Amino acid sequence: MSQASGGTICITCGKEKATFKCGGCSQEFCFNHLGDHKQELSKQFDEVELNRDLFRQTLTDQTDKPQKHPLIQQIDTWERDSINKIRQKAEEARQVVLTHINGSIRQIESRLNQLTDQLRQSREENDFFETDLQRWNYDLTQLKEELTKPSNINLHQDATPLITRISIDVASCKSASLNELKIGVSARWVQNGITVAGGYDRGNGLNQLLNPWGLCVDDDQTV
Predict the structure, then answer these.
(1) For a Cys staple, 30 with which of 17, 21, 159, 204, CB 3.0–4.6 Å?
(2) What is the helix (H) or strand (E) element at residue 75, kind and residue range?
(3) What distances in angstroms separate CA 129 from CA 27, 120, 122, 126, one per listed residue?
C-alpha cells in the first residue's frame, strides 16, 4: 500500500477522506476500509494456496495413477463406444444370417430326404448305373456347398468406416508458433520497434524465421 493522499474519495464508502492508494489495484481506500481491503487480499491469497494444494493433490493422483488422466479416460470411452458399435452391428448381422440359414437348412433337408429315397429305392431294386452314381455324388456335393456357403447369402464390408479413427498429435514446445505463445500480463511493448529478422515468410535463410518461439536481448542490446 502507498502512503496517504488528501482530498480523494474512498472506493468503498464513497466519502472524500484521506486515503491510501493500493499499489495493486490502484484504488483509493480510507483508513477505516484499508484493513478490509487487506483482509480481502489475504482471503484471496488463502484461496490461491487452497487451489494450489488441490492441484498438487490432483498432480499426485495422476502421477500414482496415470490411467486416470482425462486423455486416457477419453481413449477408454472411445474404445468402449467403438466395441459396442461393432458388437451391435455384428449381432444384427448374425440375426439376419441365422434367419436365412434356418430357411436354407429346411430346404437342404428336404432335398437330402429326396436323395435318400432315391438311393433306398435304387438299392432295393438293384437298379443303377455309373451315371446315377455320378449324379448322386454331384447332388450330395451341391448340398454340402449349399450348407456351408448358401448361394443366396453374401457378406459385404462397407467402405464407410463403422467407427471413427483416433489419432494422437504431440506438439513440441519448440515447434509452437508465435500465436500459440502465452505472453505475460507484465510484458511491455515498444512502438515502432526494430525488425531484426523475418518479413520474408518462413524458411532457413538468414533473413527468415522458422517456427520462432522466443527472443532474447542482452544488456548490450544484442539479440
Answers:
(1) 17
(2) helix 70-125
(3) 116, 14, 10, 10
